[in-house]
Design a protein that fits this description.
single chain, 363 residues, alpha/beta, Leucine-rich repeat, LRR (right-handed beta-alpha superhelix), 7-stranded mixed β-sheet, 6-stranded parallel β-sheet, 27% helix, elongated
Length: 363
Amino acid sequence: MSTNSHGHDLQLEDQEDFAVVYPENANVHDDPSMLDDAPDGAEIMSRQSSRIDRILHHMGIRKRSGRHIAIFFIIFILVITLVSCVPRFRSKRRRVHGDFSVKSHITAKLNSMYKSHHLVFPTFEAGASPTPQERAIDYLALQPGIVPWNHTKFVQQYVLAVFYYSTHAVKTEYASKPYPWANDEFWLDDLDASCKWYGVYCDDEGHVEQIRLPNNNLSGNLPIELKFLSSSLHTLDLSNNFIVMDGPMYDIFTDMSQMHTLLLEGNFLSYGQGLPSQFQNMKKLKELRLSRNLFKGHLDRHHEVLSSLTKLTHLEIESNHFSGSLPSILGKMSNLVFLALGGNAFSGDLNLFKSGELKNLGT
């Protein structure tokens, strides 16, 4: 005897409907005729159906029609399908929020870094074309393991990404139909291997020391973010490209205290007052090549740049638009071994070279 949820007693009767009682010690293998008394399959199914009807009757449940069963089955399938989709939906939400969280983390870290260099973090306008900085952030946000990176690695990857987007097929007044880089092997492919990107050279600890990309179809402007590499970058060779610079763009070089090789000849660099004053802070500079650009004015009217670059061994400024007399400081730069001044509009005599201090020049 058992009781259902409605309090009805269920008397499980008619047990004989489901059992065939054989005599004690009977063996159907010895007497196959005994199987004749066994009910066939149809009879068993009929008895089971009758029993189920009686049980449902006692439980107060009416037997459902085929149409009702079909509807129930469809609802059941829909519920199962919906439940199975919920984890994927939640996972997608986590990924979306995760990306947003990563970008927020990157933006906060970059904002602090810009402030430390006395720069204003760039703003991004909705609907406008993405800036190189914005594209770099989006790119970094997609990289696995970006958040726990150490500070140096994080800075370098961001700067290199901004540099790439700032100079890759960028239109300027001198390059209306710019080409992509001639060689960008491995660039932005693997952040953990950025020291193997074409033209990038690092020290044993992974700090970027050199960027060498001459004759590589670079166009656009050099990004101010290059300043963030000032503690390690000592060589920058972007000769014979389509780089455009003027005025405050040279602020990049204000903090380049380790720079000793700056090769920028054959571009579209301009400055109306001789050598940019920002160069005077590169006191370790040994090689400066600015030939075939658009510089003009007196080379160094106030003697503030060349007098600071006392370690210069190579100075190449030919084929620009410099004018006026040569600064006397040139005659005192004893470390010079190579000097190229032709193709400008200098005036005056060359007596400054008779000082006897340029003992290494031309040797």
